[in-house]
Specification:
Largest sheet of chain B: 6 strands, mixed
Shape of chain A: elongated
Number of strands of chain B: 11
Oligomer: heterodimer
Structural class of chain A: mainly alpha
Number of helices of chain B: 4
Order of helices and strands of chain B: HEEHHEEEEEEEEHE
Number of domains of chain B: 1
Radius of gyration of chain B: 21 Å
Largest interface: A-B, 78 and 58 residues
Distance between the termini of chain B: 66 Å
Chain lengths: 376, 213
């Protein structure tokens, strides 16, 4: 192409970066692996089907044994400890499958360049919120009000809708900020080439597509428009290090000290609250079953321990997502231009994932755990 | 310019391509089905008895008024039974029939009621076919494409024929792990989608086959 004079990347570096992008995104994708490894455009899931099917079968077996342990703990105190053990294992295995906002949390961590430690803590907080929400719904609706399954199902449905809308809003906010960073990186990537083209001898009048006008169009009028906080984008050209917009603040990326601050926690918490609001159908059913056996508190214990198991799996997946992102980031740092662009693309992709998850859940496309399937 | 567009597109589309819509089973149903025939040998419908697992039964019974602890009469459960069949309409009653490959349609359920066999709830209902069907090969399947409900045949006499012509032969096909051929079919679903009712959950369906030569 016409950019040859200023080519600052090689074919190999492009492939390395693409590989890193694929790694980061598939780490997020793990959360959505289908039981039985059913249809996937990539076809890659099919080979995992043995393991996924096994996990799927295990969690189903644990879930089905819960009722027996709950009944047994009525007369036998030691059965309660078995119940808690099974609840824990059920939580661990159950969270391997879809749902529980793992995908949203992982995407969020990838988009925001969070640390693994924060990823782990946020995973635990979201699982804790999820358990507590289930307990609160059942405590108020069933214990205090004696509501029917229909009323409880409707309540869960409303809470779900609120949760999905919040997820979409958080995703859109991230998309706005990250999309801008991407466009800036995009412009910085071919700006040198554009100058080269502009300076090139005439005779290609029709081909000057990298000129300033084209840049202004594609890069959202960053030049001189300080309302968009686009200052400082030239840093990327010179140093190739990471400066980018944070979700809730200014155009410059959060410094490590900033991440540890109260504001950093606030934006992380908004994401886990949005995700954690939606209670697990299984927890609601277990709690009501325990209540029917006059063992509500045993059910509460089992639910909280289930949440602990879930948190461990979610934290593990979040750690994989964060590590993949860090690996991609290391590769990207070695190549200015395209590497920076790829990192911004990962962030945009992750924010799009969050919006898409929220929208699909809201539309009912992914929300298959319909507690109201039989009870309206 | 093309490059910009391409990278923007890739960033947008790549994540979408890995999405999947799945669930975990939280309801287990043990299935008894009776395939109904008219006097002239045509299939007229199916009579189901679905036993819910004890945990879901407790969930469904939450807040239902009943006079005696541990007992629910058919009358006390009437409104819940109504709710069940109304809700199930959206899911086509999880019942899918084909006569010689041709899809059959069901009307609204009739004769439905709930029975409480402590600790389980049993939903009885009859699904009449819109038009009686005669076929050499009649296939009836019960499954939830989203796998939220896990259907399994009862161990004893899961399926029976009521009034079928004498030469008709019933076979019951249990759900199984996919064979390599099915696995391949599953992996190609996105490229060559089947018709609307053929979700991949069908492969794990409880199949009833009636052959009347």
């Amino acid at each position: 192409m016409t950019r040859a004079p200023n080519q600052h990347f090689t074919g190999r570096s492009v492939w390395m970066t693409l590989l890193a992008v694929a790694l980061a995104i598939s780490a997020v994708g793990v959360a959505q692996a289908a039981p039985f490894g059913a249809p996937s455009p990539s076809g890659g899931l099919v080979s995992q089907s043995g393991l996924v099917a096994w996990i799927f079968a295990q969690q189903a077996a644990f879930y089905r044994s819960l009722s027996g342990f709950i009944r047994a703990s009525k007369d036998d105190g030691t059965a309660m400890w078995s119940l808690f053990g099974i609840s824990f294992l059920y939580g661990v295995f159950h969270a391997v499958g879809p749902g529980h906002g793992k995908a949203v949390i992982s995407s969020y961590l990838v988009a925001n360049e969070e640390t693994w430690r924060r990823g782990v803590i946020l995973s635990f907080v979201s699982a804790a919120i999820q358990s507590v929400v289930a307990v609160i719904i059942v405590a108020i609706a069933a214990v205090l009000l004696g509501a029917t399954a229909k009323a409880i199902g409707s309540t869960v449905h409303i809470v779900e809708i609120v949760s999905y809308v919040l997820v979409i809003l958080i995703g859109l906010r991230l998309f706005y900020v990250k999309g801008r960073s991407f466009l800036i990186a995009c412009r910085n990537w071919y700006e040198p080439a554009a100058l080269a083209v502009a300076a090139a001898p005439s005779g290609h009048a029709g081909k000057i597509v990298f000129g300033p006008a084209a840049n202004a169009f594609h890069c959202a009028h960053c030049d001189g428009d300080h309302a968009f906080h686009c200052h400082g984008e030239h840093d990327h050209d010179d140093h190739g290090h990471e400066h980018h917009a944070s979700a809730w603040g200014h155009a410059h990326g959060p410094e490590p000290s900033e991440l540890a601050g109260a504001g950093g926690w606030r934006r992380g918490l908004s994401a886990v609250i949005a995700v954690g609001l939606r209670p697990c159908s299984g927890a609601i059913i277990v709690l009501i079953f325990a209540l029917a056996q006059d063992l509500f508190w045993t059910g509460v214990g089992a639910t909280l321990i289930m949440g602990l198991g879930t948190a461990i799996t979610v934290a593990a997946i979040a750690t994989v997502a964060v590590s993949a992102r860090q690996a991609a980031s290391r590769i990207a740092k070695a190549r200015s231009g395209i590497g920076m662009l790829a990192m911004r693309a990962i962030e945009v992709g992750a924010s799009v994932l969050i919006v898409a998850f929220g929208a699909l859940l809201l539309a009912g496309y992914m929300a298959s755990e319909q507690l109201w399937m039989f009870t309206g | 310019m093309k490059r910009t567009r391409a990278c923007a597109l890739a960033a947008l589309l790549l994540p979408l391509s890995i999405m999947r819509a799945e669930a975990h089973p939280h309801v287990w149903v043990t299935l008894h089905s009776e395939i109904l025939y008219s006097a002239d040998g045509a299939m007229t419908g199916v009579r189901h008895a679905w036993t819910f697992d004890d945990m879901f039964s407790a969930y469904a019974l939450q807040g239902i008024h009943h006079a005696k602890k541990g007992q629910y009469t058919r009358e006390e459960l009437a409104s819940l039974a109504q709710l069940n069949v109304d809700s199930l309409k959206e899911y086509a009653y999880f019942t899918f029939a084909r006569a010689d490959g041709r899809k059959l349609k069901f009307s609204e359920p009739v004769d439905y009621w709930l029975e409480y066999r402590n600790p389980e709830l049993v939903l009885h209902f009859t699904l009449p076919l819109k038009a009686p069907a005669t076929a050499k090969s009649l296939q009836l399947e019960v499954y939830d494409p989203t796998i939220f409900v896990d259907f399994e045949f009862a161990k004893e006499k899961p399926v029976s024929l009521d009034g079928a012509p004498a030469q008709c032969l019933l076979t019951v096909d249990l759900p199984h792990q996919p064979t390599p051929a099915e696995q391949l079919k599953l992996s190609q679903l996105d490229v060559t989608p089947l018709d609307a009712s053929s979700a991949y959950g069908e492969i794990f369906a409880n199949k009833m086959l009636v052959k009347c030569p």
